[in-house]
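Quick start: what a row looks like.
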Amino acid sequence: MGAVPADRVGWPYLPAPRVATLEGMDVQAIGEPDAAEALLRTLLAVGPAALIGLQRELSGQQAGLRTHALLALGACLFTLAGLHLGGTEAGRVAGQVATGVGFIGAGTIIRDSLRVKGLTTAASLWVTAAIGVAAAVGAYSALAATVAVTLLVLLIVPPIERQILPHRKQQRVTVSLEPGTSPASAARSIAAILPDFQVIRVRSTSAGGQALTGEARLQRGVGPVEVLADIQALRGIRDVDLTI
């Protein structure tokens, strides 16, 4: 029998694994930066993250400017620490950042009956962590492109989405009830017209009755005028206000 080829090992002669090397790579570019470069990378992580956080805060989200800025700062510092350790530690640390930020993102997601809120903010936090990692390793082109596209998605896409998919927009419905009408009964009647209707506030009125405010999405093919007329026709309803 002839000798077993060197590129075959064990049974059933699988190819020997190839070991990755740093040959041809710019080691200096991914090495530990000096103090001035580290400061620059930190600022480049925090600045864009703060812009994204400001947009989320202006949109009424709980995770705003400070949360996004601190998250990017932490991701950047973790990655810089991995670069300081050298070897494969930087990649491992970056991977752990991507895993750990999931716990923070999960805290911004709220499930309310049939609706889930906070997914966009959770995604923006995840992108912010990636920005921190990119800044730490000096991937400035990728960082700039990511920030630009992220702000484009957050600022430009929502108005377009509302025009293309109007039925996905949350509508606020405020209903004044006749004295003696139960808010729970009225809410069930409204839910028959707007299936995902959820009450967010109940208050007393000066007329001796009660008013309830809720949110819902219009069903596809159903206009606000029809919904308003249907709710107004319900028993015990005095007045209806539908905010579009």
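That is the whole record. The first strand starts at residue 8 and ends at 9. The chain has two domains: 27-162, 166-243.
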